[in-house]
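S.,

Sequence below, as promised.
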Amino acid sequence: MPLVHFSHNGRARLGKLFGDHLVDLSTAAPRLPATVIDFLAAGEGAREAFHAVGDGEGAIALSDLRLLPPVPRPEKYLGIGMNYRDHAAEARKAGVATPPFQVWFNKQVSCIVGPFDDVIKPRVSEKLDYEAELAVVIGRTCRHVAVENARGVIGGYMVANDVSARDWQLRTPTHTLGKSFDTHGPIGPWLVLDDEVENPHALEMRMYVNGEQRQRGNTGEMIHNIFDQIAYLSTVMTLKPGDILATGTPSGVGAAMDPPRFVEPGDVMRVEIDGIGHIENRVVTDEG
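The prediction came back faster than expected:
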């Protein structure tokens, strides 16, 4: 059962999902940490206590609460570029060569919003795009992780939409500004713990815009799989509980269509990943 970060009666806390409702962990297991990052850092004892929580006491209907981003303030939010074979192929048609190594960029953590929050179209961008992605959340502090040991440092998985202002993204090689506008990091709807996912490389994902399917892919189509990604990144930096890795997007992004089809205020983006859940975000005008 997923670990949920939610708000109810003006107070944020964690819950355990049971179908159309959750159990408030502050009531059912008050000794558990109060944030996802602290929960992951607490290790196996916290996971065992979480799994022991049953349905019943402290139940709240999903319709009566607001889902919050599972990890609202990670230390790092990193994304990998052109990591699906079909997406790399559509990029090559546009004259962008497939890189020989993993290509990573930062999404500044201030971009993070909840699974059903609005996404703002910046007044300075005319090319707002979507990217359906599986997000991996690191579960423990680690460095120099071997590929064969990488699964052991994963805390869980979320759905992500790597919203991208393409005109800003392509101004510089780093991509960071075009990936980091406020609200351009919707994640959720909850954290599915790693031990509840049989194979993270066999998950179907889909992106819809206003009900029209734009992307469809499977996580098994990655060029660099999740374990390779963790090994590569941990060669450079210490990964910590709560760090988010957006693992790439399949073909069908708006920028690659002929003609390009970017999203506009009023459009609704929905990302679904089988076994993880879905997020849905409406594009709104920049009123700031």
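The longest helix spans residues 226-236.

Coffee later?
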